[in-house]
Amino acid sequence: MATRVYVPRETAAVSVGADDVAIAIARCAKENGESIELVRNGSWGATWLEPLVEVLVDDKRIAYGNVAAGDVPALFDAGFLRGREHKSRLGAINEIPYLINQDRWTFWRCGLVEPLNMDDFRVHQGFKAFEKAVGMGADKVIEAVKTSGLRGRGGAGFPAGIKWQTVADAEGEQKYIACNADEGDSGTFSDRILMEGDPLGLIEGMMIAGFAVGATRGYIYLRSEYPLTHSILSRAIDTARDAGWLGQNIQDSGFDFDVELHLGAGSYVCGEETAMLESLEGKQGIVRYKPPLPAHEGLFGAPTVVNNVVTLASVANIMNLGGEKYASFGVDRSKGTLAFQLAGNIKRGGLVEKGFGITLRELIEDWGGGTASGRPVKAVQVGGPLGAYIPVEQLDTPLDYEAFIGIGAMVGHGGIVVFDDTANMAQQARFAMEFCAIESCGKCTPCRIGSTRGVEVIDRMIKGTERETNYDLLVELCDTMEDASLCAMGGMTPFPVRSVLKYFAEDFASAVGADQ
Amino acid sequence: MTHEPYNKKAASDIVASFGARPEMLVQILHAFVDRFAWISEDAIRQLAAELNLSRADVHGVVSYYHDFRTEAPGKHIVKICEAEACQAMGSRTLSAYASASLGGEDVTLEPVYCLGNCACSPAIMVDGKTYGRVSSERFDEIMASLGESG
Known about the structure:
The structure holds 2 protein chains of 2 kinds.
Chain A (H helix, E strand, L loop, with lengths): L2 E4 L4 H5 L2 H14 L4 E4 L13 E5 L2 E5 L7 H7 L10 E4 L4 H4 L17 H6 L4 H9 L1 H11 L11 H10 L6 E6 L8 H8 L1 H15 L3 E6 L4 H16 L15 E6 L9 H8 L23 E5 H13 L1 H5 L2 E2 L2 E2 L1 E8 L5 E6 L4 H8 L9 E6 L6 E3 L9 H6 L8 E6 L4 H15 L5 H19 L3 H18 L3 H5 L1 H10 L3 H4 L6
Parallel strand pairs in A: 1-2, 6-7, 6-9, 7-8, 12-16
Antiparallel strand pairs in A: 1-3, 3-4, 4-5, 10-11, 12-13, 14-15, 14-16
Helix pairs in contact in A: 6-10, 6-13, 7-8, 7-10, 9-10, 10-13, 17-18, 17-21, 18-19, 19-21
Chain B lengths: L7 H10 L7 H12 L4 H11 L3 H10 L11 E6 L2 H4 L3 H11 L5 E6 L11 E3 L2 E3 L4 H14 L1
Parallel strand pairs in B: 1-2
Antiparallel strand pairs in B: 1-3, 3-4
């Protein structure tokens, strides 16, 4: 019988050679007269171990980490097809502490299944949640989502059940589900891991949302920086349609639903929900005034649920296991799990799905193993480019939406970017303003002009020109941007800037170009 | 990456394949870039006519998005991630190295703000393919491998 070998087809794994490893394994198997079945799975999220190869031996998946194509002949010689010893051998995949100590609610199929294999998906609960939802009826589905306490995982954290209820109650012949897959925050990749590892799971989440609110059309707005994701997702949509899980009268449920995949075009602000809707309509991604809320007047003016990838994918298990079960994870008003993403200067980077309430220190030290450089941590940016830089003194803050707001920071989409002590934080403050200037949609003045002025003021501070006067000016500029910007782009760019002023002010004098 | 020069017939076919729906403009422009590498003034004129939009509308969309270049790129397109996670792993040094080492070559070098490969920083994208853990040595190897494949 052919030995099954898993090699991920996932952006991070492929970016460090997984395709070459797959080719080398196929070739070596042929040369050695071994019969293998090569499965291209998604990633488990232990990105630091990629390329992570597994071999199925006696019902156990034996993992080998950081495999390079050049290692493959030696792996065959060592007998890896029988799970034998080799320096890269990690043991059974379901015994790796990084993975087993997580709360895998939303990402449980990632790595486990073959993403585009409908049979494999069905064996692993696929579409069970949709069937259950149809059996429950729309009202009870929305009730379960409310009970779960699920909040929008894109960053804003708005309660998903309330949003769904609003759209369900809104008048309108045509309603839409718009999935925000414009994962633009640096340090985040959980949407991508889900879409590459369990694309059918996302489609199922969208179907449930559509059923609950009475929407028959769904759109996925995917960022163009994810070409591999695009290829996997578009094939998954075709697979679902071919098998009768998208289209008219799905599996005789009387429910029609179909999904269209759209590509973004390199604009960060299109991750903002109204800019995304403009872009989906083929226009410039310029932010809309709110109200009206998208739930009332969204895509093409129709009531629209705009949810992030992880939000939608989390719903399937809320159907399967119940809203109460989901709410049993997490703390206070931050219920459930979040897929934290360890990134930047970190030894063991990757995805860690855990209940809210875990501290930054636990994630960075216990999971992440400290910095990749081995130097001390200086600052941690949580929640993307609009998130504050958190100093080491605050690493014991629990990850929970309200606790983070309490320290002037945000959880956002769960990206955690670690910087070591060689980083100059004044330079990072400057970059926050520079990034805002590059990506501003231009509709409101505080964001469009304020960001450019911000770069200039910070440059003067770094140079040492009237540092105190410019400090005051920068604070005032931050106030204006925060109070008067139309959306989070201009409104939150001050967060990282203020955190640098507060905790790392001495870095202005030591930045490159500083006149001391 | 192989591209062909802009021609009206091929462009018309692309527009037709999207049902000439004006709301598909962003998607159509992607298809244009895939086929012709960049968006010319002629292409904008044609899109406006076939989608029943004004030239200003089309121009606005083209100029709004980073992906829609209005000049022919070099033979290879190298994007270096200069967002925070990659900055924390030395992307500023890598960018400086790349721009010095690619001087004089027919390569378009540009920054990109996040490739979503933040646990393998620094990351780059070359001709649409993402690479992670890119040191300056690995950067040279990647560029050299392009030369081999043509």
